[in-house]
Amino acid sequence: MPSFLSPEFIISAAGPWALVISAIIVFAETGLLVGFFLPGDSLVFLLGMVSAATALPDSPLAHTSLVLICIVIGIAAFIGDQTGYELGRKGRDSRLLRSWTQGKNAERLERAHSFFVKYGYKAIILARFVPILRTFTPFAVGLTHYDHRKFISANLIGTLIWGIALPTLGHQLGRVSLIANNIDAVCIIIVLISVMPLVIKGVRSALASRGATRA
């Protein structure tokens, strides 16, 4: 990860605007379709650590209310997902994507719609915790014209859990000196944990295809 994308650099460089910049990054990660490379999980976790004044104690965010951080991050995440959904919903009817959504792609979208009808609620909530997936899932759900009210409900639950759990976890674990003194290592571990579901899914798919080939 480039140094300017490290959570520690972002919070330090932003100074008193660190919470605002972090909220913009959280929004962009799911609302603009280009934020898959942004450090959402580790950044939000570090915000919790900073609020406890155990990491980056000279930051203006030191001793900032954890409740305020959870509210701001939760709102940014919720609006980001809603924006991604609207881009997908309106994009399907746009001239740019209209030709793409016909033929075989129309069949794929129909299968995707069936998937989200069956598993969508859980999938939308769980996607919030997996990098890359949380960037593209709202857009994909919008493309299928999945029920808007159900999406709002699932989005609200996912962003509430994510927006409260990660900063709170950072706030509590940041009190452990070993963690507070090894910010970079902690951020890397968080990224590895968050992408683990994708790795496991990839390994399972590879093993399944090998088994089918041998059969």
Whole-number mean pLDDT = 81
Portion in strands: under 5%
Rg result:
19 Å
Please give the share of residues in helix: over 70%
Main sheet record:
none
- The helix count comes to 10
What is the SS-derived class?
A: mainly alpha
Order of helices and strands: HHHHHHHHHH
Terminal Cα separation, in Å?
41 Å
- Shape, principal axes of CA atoms: elongated
Q: Care to count the β-strands?
A: 0
Low-confidence stretches: none
Write the layout of secondary structure elements.
Layout: H1 7-14, H2 18-31, H3 40-51, H4 66-92, H5 95-98, H6 104-127, H7 133-143, H8 148-173, H9 177-180, H10 183-214
Helix pairs in contact: 1-2, 1-3, 2-3, 2-4, 3-8, 3-10, 4-7, 4-8, 6-7, 6-8
Using brief descriptors, characterize the structure shown:
single chain; 215 residues; 75% helix; mainly alpha
Describe this structure in words.
The protein has 215 residues and is mainly alpha-helical. The protein is built from ten helices and no strands. The longest helix has 32 residues, at 183-214.
